Fold this protein.
Amino acid sequence: MGKVYLTGAGPGDMELLTMKAFRVVKEADVIIYDRLANPDILKEAKSGCEFVYVGKEDGRHIMPQDEINETIYQNALKHDNVVRLKGGDPFVFGRGGEEAAYLFERDIKFEIIPGITSAISAPAYAGIPVTHRGVAVSFRVVTGHESPNKTTSQIPWNNFKTDDTIIFLMGLHNLPMISEKLIEIGKPADYPCAVISKGTTVDQKVVIGTLSDITKKAEGIPTPALIVVGKVVELRQQLNWFKQ
Ligand code: SAH
């Protein structure tokens, strides 16, 4: 019986992989990976390492989560070193907690290897600090997967009235509803926001706008993409350092 490393692959730029993740990838007998993990990481595996793609994207998956859990478990019965490689950080909307709980219930040893989350690093590569003295004293990372029009929404929209930075993951398809909702709770229509696509990679695209025009401006931008709402977006004028 082996051990499972629930491993963060980082946001895209391969050099943002942690040294620990790099080591377990090199030692892996099998790597179970998502679409969001940079495929170049797999080239670091030893010869004979098996690869299992469980293609998950924007919260929708080719393989249902319980099948992914079972796949990880079955591989742990067969191999010594099982790497479950997930985009960004495994515990930031990565369902890493569910996978770890599934293993815990079956007495499989596991380790969590945190990764650099896209929530912070994609803004950083876009020249947007998620906090900034005098501008934003905190930031929130929120799922954008759920439409704000849902009556049973668990998202505390009314708490978003402050100038704290809000980062929506998995929200591109709900961008029109999200921006409307934020205006509805009292944010000005010209409030700054950004959409960052394929952050930290050579294909990174950044669209800057306001709550009223961001949907139109970001039309057709490819996924994965996240939304940053807050006055920190304006700092990009000075801090945009990343040129592809
Ligand atoms: N665990 C991941 C997030 C998984 S949810 C992490 O910590 O980064 C998937 C969402 O993450 C996508 O819908 C998108 O909103 C965001 N995302 C992941 N990689 C991204 C990237 N390189 N650029 C922009 N957004 C990204």
Remarks:
- The chain has two domains: 3-113, 118-239.
- The chain has a mean pLDDT of 95.
- The first strand starts at residue 3 and ends at 8.
- DSSP finds seven helices and twelve strands in the chain.
